[in-house]
Fold this sequence. Notes:
The chain is of the alpha+beta class. Among the domains are: 95-148, Porin chaperone SurA, peptide-binding domain (Triger factor/SurA peptide-binding fold); 280-385, Roll (Chitinase A, domain 3), CATH 3.10.50.40. 49% of the residues lie in helices and 19% in strands. The chain is built from 15 helices and twelve strands. The protein has helices at residues 3-16, 41-54, 65-88, 95-108, 113-122, 127-151, 156-164, 187-205, 211-218, 240-247, 299-314, 319-326, 330-333, 349-356, 388-418; strands at residues 30-34, 37-40, 170-180, 229-234, 254-259, 263-274, 280-291, 338-342, 367-369, 372-385, 421-423, 432-433. It catalyses: [protein]-peptidylproline (omega=180) = [protein]-peptidylproline (omega=0).
Amino acid sequence: MNKTLLSLLAAALLAASPIHAQDIVPLERIAAVVDEDVILQSELDRAVANVLAQYAGRSDQLPPREILERQVLERLVLVRLQTARAGQMGVRVSDAEVDGAVGMIAQQNGFTPDQLRQQLAADGLSFDEFRSSLREELMVQRLRQRFAQTRIVVSDAEVDAALAGDAVNRQYQLAHILVALPDGATPEQITTAEEKIEGIKALVERGEMAFQAAAVRYSDSPNALEGGSLGWRSLDEIPTAFSGAVQSMQPGEVLGPMRGPSGFQLLQLVEVRDAQNAGSVTQYQARHILIRSGGDVSDEQARARAQTLRARAAGGADFAELARENTDDPSSRERGGDLGWFTIDQFGPDFGAQVAGIEDGAISEPFKTQAGWHIVQRVGTRQAAADNDNRRAQVREAIGQRKLEDEWNRFLREIRGEAYVDVRSAAAPAGTGG
């Protein structure tokens, strides 16, 4: 509806009946326009309230309200951009799949779905909004899964090099602070960012602020509100630009500032430990349905059939029964497609990446290997003693995760830089990207 038509409609409504001040209902404010979508101020307010609730009793660690709003708004923008890209790529999440995710979360917290709904209401959260957030999260997971399948490759030479260095025996808990730079930053922007990161490091080194508190208050990274935590990582999961230095650091020591593709960074080594599972490897249990092409079945027909079967499984049909009736894999047909326990590369890197990229109980999108089109339902995971082959699989997985994180962060910067983002929240600086 164009502005002229809106004006005419408003004039007609005004002429039709008098409006009193007490009858006026304010329109919903817009916090940001993201391409063809919007983020409402009420959405931003709820997200900020959630952060404040998480920091109850520790609110002094949070940045000023306007900075906190900017951080939270940027998170919301990135989620919208990812779900939009997922939709453009044909990623869909059905109501039945959202129901399944709700049931899993309820079970993990010792609730029935109805009890979870009641708990959310008691916490002042809308069940519909909770479902919407879950749908977005599932879409982002599937987008990341497709991304890993198409862009992440780990060579045997990389695995050999990592095994030669015995890089999987120790794990490092890391945190970081990022002062971001835009693409094509001017010399003035670079100087300002460099001065800011040096100032943050000085605060930490003088003991005026803990590293995690400084990350919450000053970092431009999406994980700022988690204190910049990068979690526990093996050496293979640490970017090669930092891995050498990290091995010689002491807990509490800060590395940097370092200039990277996103801007200037500080990296802190929080703690070091011997990997508890250095002699073990992750194994997966999964069911699959294979649809082969060839003969009278074209590749497109095989893909469409796999998509139809996936939709039936997501809609509640028993996956094992579907496999018995439809799979072209005779070795697993009688077991309902069950492949038993296997490592990430046992059935090839493409198959393993798909299984590793979904959660237990989830069903993959159709994907293609040399054997044909597959859909996979992941049943569970476990740690098993690592022989040489399993150790290689463990190292391959660690390298793949590190590469995925690097490439995924680069991808997020790309879609953020290409997007039209008009920030209108009063507490956030106005600006347009893309």
